[in-house]
Amino acid sequence: MKSSNSVRSNSVRSDSVRSNSVRSDSVSACNHPRLARREALQIGSIGLLGMGLNHLTGLRQAVAADNGPLQGKAKSCIFIFLSGGLSQHESFDMKPNAPDMIRGEFKPISTKTPGFQICEHLPMLAERSDQWSLCRSLTHGSNEHSAGHHMILTGHSQLPPGFKPNEPSRTDRPSIAAIAGRATASTNNLPPAVVLPERLVHNSGRVIPGQDAGEMGPQHDPWMIRASPFHAKSYGAFPAYAFDHQERGNPDKRVFQAPQLSLPHGLGMQQVKGRLQLLETLQNQRRSLDGFAETQQFDRLRQGAIDLLTDSSVHHALDVTNADAKSLERYGNNSFGWSLLMARRLISTGVSLVQVNLGNDETWDTHGNAFPHLKNKLLPPTDRALSALLDDLNATGELDETLVVMASEFGRTPQISLLEKHYESPGRDHWGAVQSVWFAGGGVHGGNVIGASDAQGGYPSEQPVTPENFAATIYRALGIPDTAVWHDAADRPHQIYHGQPIPGLT
Prior knowledge:
By secondary structure, this protein is of the alpha/beta class. Helices cover 28% and strands 14% of the residues. A hairpin with a 6-residue loop joins strand 4 and strand 5.
């Protein structure tokens, strides 16, 4: 059976790189018996070289960089995901004229754009409203975390057959990050799609579905940089903004660990070159004895590890906790700031898409104690880091060629409620019917509002859009043609687009 998991245009089935098409891999990881790539790296090439790569266990995804480039409006995309569900009423779609139990405690403030108001706790973004736009009418049919994650992260309103909310499955739809990783190419030694700083994990420890390549195959899972260790009870932009939803009395002592790429102490590049020459001699002898395709794949992974170790631009992109004091102050000396700074550096080095998870699962799930947590712990670091990101991209001219989007798996209920058994003060529950999605750069018209919610902020009243429209907006910005497909192990084509880009943004 022929095996090919490449992404390609319906009209293009060759290995050549063409404008507005995606190359089909003639040599692909999925064409061969699968290696345990993590073990291969740890035991094989890295072990033979006497090297180690702290945190970068996703090196097995380096083969994703084999895809050909596409030309689009944006060279890159930063996809900011607020896991848990950002409240539209306490952020970008306030209802000051609604009854008390709907409008909430926060007040709206004017932005730089006349007639455009947002939450008072987002003052820095308000000053930059001419650089970003909103869609206030994204809607889908689920109020459940796992389903909502899958819908937004994959761009599919309908869940796949046999969907398992408690664990990822290879029958899940491919994530937007996985699609971007197959359909675009990085210009550095990193894969074209990266996710950071942590995997989305429920407070019970279960992994949230929808963030991997799913049915596309594990070899296409986005490359994960785990810089933020999972904490089962504490949430927020640690260290400065750590909090616990249910006040369990467990302070968050996590440390943001930017990946470090370095040679072991006492091992210089000349020694490395000597070991490489010896290794090459041994592998040449092995090649004469076997013709397995795993050898070629292994060599590519080994070279990817070496390239990462020796690439100064990659080192700079990942070394965010040691940034200069001015940058740390502008972005915020916390996990949210460090994450967006790392994303900004990664796209500057040539990564096509960086998904930034601002908080693990339920960080933004404000059922209770919503107003103090949003006011003191969540909105300020987001406001600061996102504003710094806009300033940096604008200063270098990269904002025009970088699409920045921010969304959650759903919004929050119009009605405020109090769960007395769990919280001291009220909040809002899950609400898939409407949420606000934030866009900037990549040709997006600043100071623009697409769609609207009703008077209570509960349902779309104008121009409803779907997760399919959301995903298509990212794909179109990156230049992926609407005829593009990816092929599974049986060479069956699967459409990438399942909707049209959101109209009016660009």
